[in-house]
């Protein structure tokens, strides 16, 4: 069997300039030890502080803080705000009550996925979309421009932080009191912290307990970062980057990597997000009805890759074959220290999507064997602990 340890590669740097936006927390992340960045939604996103495995353990055993100001919000307001949101997504968001969030897909005329997003509903006629990497603002403005709807689409001055990990409720309580513990999963609260305007929500991309703090005035970036770090000090809070390892374990998909524009919700197993007969229709309705009747041709599946632990996550799609014929590709993969196995996702035809199907993977360092399996491997944590430790108690 070929060695499954990838050769050490030179990591290129990324230049910093005015063309790409810095988040309000950019300087704070540098002071906190950020070593690497990528560009996401035209904004610098920290991708490494220490190393991926160290950051993973800090996330799943403690509490962590992430700069995710790259999640640029799209605000939709006006008398016809709900009508526009209904046009954008197959979910019937009329059932999403103010003060709550929903996970939604945005679909094109062919039923393909334009993006995925968390929808925040503040009032009957005021929404935010918090999307993945992509021009959702331009897409939404394009849908609205000739719709005849009385609606305004804009990008507000909003920059999120994520507070994630099993001890995040302790830190949130220290910052916001019992209101943070009373917030339901995927609930939101408009609030403030020492005069800093915020939206607090029980959402996040970690698979662990967590919150998002949406800063509503970028001038307060340093103050908010420092306040959260100070409140989290008794629980050894650590700044980290979004964890690829934990996101794959939890089945949290990444737009452009796991979700392509050519994929539809049936490909991803996200039929639960479809209300194909909702009143008023939506973009892609007829195409998705046709796919529902005919069946999806491809499927995103979980795979376990045999061999030695992968040193790094894949930098590009790895070709996947079945009985010597190329049939798809690995979208993302990683070694899970907790599960002690290599896991990931692959996009394959329906004929090769059954659990137990054996596949070949053409990795850069040699061929691998993979087996289709169920996912997620570690389901998301949703329930807050019934009793929190006393204030000031340290995490073990």
Under the CATH scheme, which architecture of the largest domain would be assigned? 2-Layer Sandwich
Distance separating the two termini: 41 Å
What is the approximate shape? globular
Largest sheet: 6 strands, mixed
Helix content: 10-25%
- Number of discrete domains: 3
The CATH H-level homologous superfamily of the largest domain: Probable tRNA modification gtpase trme, domain 1
Return the CATH topology of the largest domain.
Answer: Gyrase A, domain 2
The gyration radius over C-alpha positions equals 21 Å
Order of helices and strands: HEEHEEHEEEHEEHHEEEHEHHEEEEEE
Number of helices: 9
What's the rounded overall pLDDT mean? Answer: 94
How is this fold's topology laid out?
Elements: H1 26-31, E1 36-40, E2 43-48, H2 52-61, E3 64-67, E4 74-77, H3 81-88, E5 100-107, E6 113-123, E7 126-131, H4 136-145, E8 152-154, E9 159-164, H5 168-176, H6 179-182, E10 188-193, E11 196-201, E12 210-215, H7 221-232, E13 238-239, H8 244-249, H9 285-294, E14 298-305, E15 318-322, E16 325-336, E17 341-349, E18 358-363, E19 366-373
Parallel strand pairs: 3-13
Antiparallel strand pairs: 1-2, 3-9, 4-7, 4-8, 5-6, 6-7, 9-12, 10-11, 11-12, 14-17, 14-19, 15-16, 15-18, 16-17, 18-19
